[in-house]
């Protein structure tokens, strides 16, 4: 029997006992109000006084009412206590399971804030098969998460919450809070705790982008500005915009744009693109190269370009083609 049904049955039994007692005392000569009063004081065991003298029949009826009524009241209290402790126990066990699940994650993405931007980031990452941990101060917001998504109620400006979200083993942190001051503080905290983690922070204004970079954000992104630019590109170059939309977001196509890091000692490191013949060997199309973290992207690189260790290759291809390229670069 479910919790709600048990509670309804218990309350119905209490109402039935009250009606039974009232009718019984009315039949013994009490007025309706006197009968209700006598029933309530008897069942509740308060027992201020008898409204009027009880004969033998009245005393026998009162004894029966006490036995039935007190039993019903105790049953109601038991059901209420069971529902209360059952809910608390369930929440405690669910929290323990979630904490254990988060502690076991490696290479996940922490989403700080589950507003409109955080929700969109979560949907994109989970649809692409990435593990995420969503953190928000509002438990009701987190209740809207799809089943199976790891989450945590807390304030990401606190180091403890970032630790509980698995920052030590996270691949990246997306700070999508609604307040720039909190975003800067959360970025500072995450950078201090994990100097090498990728941090992408939401900037609500152009001025806040510079502050977020100073705070340690790897990238500071203004969603409104990006959205406006995309609208403009769709208006002027719809085919170009559709191409980038498809390669980045469409799950129904087999090809993707992906970045591939070049490891020291790999087959790619220290060799020219002409020697490597990436397209012929892997099928992936090389779009651009970033030689080091501080350099800009070099689109359509020439065959003479020598790829150093630590470079990043940007390539277009199917998952098997991109995996073949990644194997060369490992």
TrEMBL record:
Transmembrane annotation, as ranges: 7-28, 60-85
Question: What span is annotated as the signal peptide, if there is one?
Answer: none
- Domain of life, per UniProt, equals Bacteria
Where it sits in the cell: the answer is:
Cell membrane
Q: Where is the RCK N-terminal domain?
A: 106-222
Q: What does the record give under GO molecular function? A: potassium ion transmembrane transporter activity
Q: Does the keyword Membrane apply?
A: yes
Keyword check for Amino-acid biosynthesis, yes or no. no
Q: Which UniProt keywords apply?
A: Ion channel, Ion transport, Membrane, NAD, Potassium, Potassium transport, Transmembrane, Transmembrane helix, Transport
UniProt domain RCK C-terminal: residue ranges? 245-330
Q: How does the protein's chain sit in the membrane according to the entry?
A: Multi-pass membrane protein
Identify the InterPro entries for this entry: K_chnl_dom (IPR013099), K_uptake_TrkA (IPR006036), NAD(P)-bd_dom_sf (IPR036291), RCK_C (IPR006037), RCK_C_sf (IPR036721), RCK_N (IPR003148), Trk_Ktr_HKT_K-transport (IPR050721)
Q: Which Pfam families match?
A: Ion_trans_2 (PF07885), TrkA_C (PF02080), TrkA_N (PF02254)
Q: Which GO terms describe its cellular component?
A: plasma membrane
What protein am I looking at?
Trk system potassium uptake protein TrkA
């Amino acid at each position: 029997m479910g919790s709600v049904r048990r509670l309804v049955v218990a309350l119905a039994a209490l109402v039935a006992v009250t009606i039974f007692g009232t009718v019984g005392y009315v039949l013994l000569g009490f007025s309706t109000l006197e009968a209700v009063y006598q029933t309530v004081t008897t069942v509740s065991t308060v027992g201020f006084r008898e409204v009027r003298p009880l004969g033998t029949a009245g005393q026998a009826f009162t004894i029966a009412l006490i036995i039935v009524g007190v039993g019903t009241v105790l049953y109601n209290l038991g059901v209420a206590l069971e529902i209360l402790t059952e809910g608390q126990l369930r929440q405690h066990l669910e929290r323990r399971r979630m904490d254990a699940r988060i502690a076991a994650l490696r290479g996940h993405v922490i989403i700080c804030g589950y507003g409109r931007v955080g929700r969109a980031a979560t949907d994109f990452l989970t649809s692409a098969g990435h593990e995420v941990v969503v953190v928000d101060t509002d438990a009701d917001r987190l209740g809207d998460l799809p089943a199976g998504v790891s989450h945590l109620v807390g304030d990401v400006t606190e180091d403890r919450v970032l630790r509980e979200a698995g920052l030590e083993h996270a691949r990246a942190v997306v700070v999508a809070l609604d307040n720039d001051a909190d975003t800067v503080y959360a970025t500072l905290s995450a950078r201090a705790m994990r100097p090498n983690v990728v941090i992408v922070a939401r900037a609500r204004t152009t001025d806040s982008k510079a502050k977020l970079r100073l705070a340690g954000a790897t990238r500071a992104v203004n969603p409104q500005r990006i959205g406006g630019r995309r609208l403009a590109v769709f208006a002027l170059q719809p085919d170009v915009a559709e191409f980038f939309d498809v390669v980045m977001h469409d799950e129904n196509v087999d090809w993707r744009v992906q970045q591939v890091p070049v490891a020291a000692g790999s087959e790619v490191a220290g060799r020219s693109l002409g020697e490597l013949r990436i397209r012929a060997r892997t099928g992936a199309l090389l779009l651009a190269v970033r030689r080091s973290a501080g350099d800009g992207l070099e689109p359509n690189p020439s065959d003479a370009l020598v790829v150093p260790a630590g470079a990043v290759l940007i390539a277009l291809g199917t998952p098997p083609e991109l995996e073949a390229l990644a194997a060369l670069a490992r």
